[in-house]
Amino acid sequence: FFFFFLFFSRSSAKLVAPLGCLVSRQKHTLPDLPYDYAALEPHINAEIMQLHHSKHHATYVNNLNVAEEKYKEALAKGDVTAQVSLQPALKFNGGGHINHTIFWTNLSPNGGGEPKGELMEAIKRDFGSFANFKEKLTAVSVGVQGSGWGWLGYNKEQGRLQIAACANQDPLQGTTGLIPLLGIDVWEHAYYLQYKNVRPDYLKAIWNVINWENVSSRYATCKK
């Protein structure tokens, strides 16, 4: 229980507002997309978005609720073995819910281009230029072995931006301590129907729909 509490408590409540509270036993729910399934075309087609959101993300939510209910029962029984055995399911499905909740807001039909203001200055400071940053995050995302995520995060202790990759559905903050600002999903279900096995083409296209206002807002929030 202590591990799981830390896992969720390290994630900003503001960034993952749809997540319920373990203490109150609220059911997690699938957040609505802030745009239509076809809104990101031609860069990400409607079929991908519908399957990704209504099937894959919904499965993480449902499985997380089931795992939490089993965990609640194990706690009540004092069954430490069952609590430990449930940790992988809690991490995987909880991470999938956290990651996708961020991902949907990181995208926008009015996205693309470059960030402005403080975020752009921080990118130039920490990566030399926006072009260098874009190249590095793309390379890290392409290089994920199997399924996972490429991330731009904020290192609060060092006061700087940092790029990282996470395997599977490992949540950035819960596993690295970095506060998530921008996540790029490189699971095959995020691009395969449109880009087949050519992940670099998907990663080239996704920059056209990055919601820099959302990323900038996250950056401003985590600096407070």
TrEMBL record:
Superkingdom classification of source: Eukaryota
Main location, first listed in the record: mitochondrion
Obligatory cofactor(s): Mn(2+)
GO cellular component: mitochondrial matrix
InterPro entries in the cross-refs: Fe/Mn_Superoxide_Dismutase (IPR050265), Mn/Fe_SOD (IPR001189), Mn/Fe_SOD_BS (IPR019833), Mn/Fe_SOD_C (IPR019832), Mn/Fe_SOD_N (IPR019831), Mn/Fe_SOD_N_sf (IPR036324), SOD_C_sf (IPR036314)
GO MF, any single term: superoxide dismutase activity
Pfam families linked to this entry: Sod_Fe_C, Sod_Fe_N
Enzyme Commission number(s) of this protein: 1.15.1.1
Swiss-Prot/TrEMBL keywords: Manganese, Metal-binding, Mitochondrion, Nitration, Oxidoreductase
PANTHER family cross-referenced by the UniProt entry: SUPEROXIDE DISMUTASE 2, SUPEROXIDE DISMUTASE [MN], MITOCHONDRIAL
Protein name from the UniProt record: Superoxide dismutase
The organism of origin for this protein: Prunella himalayana
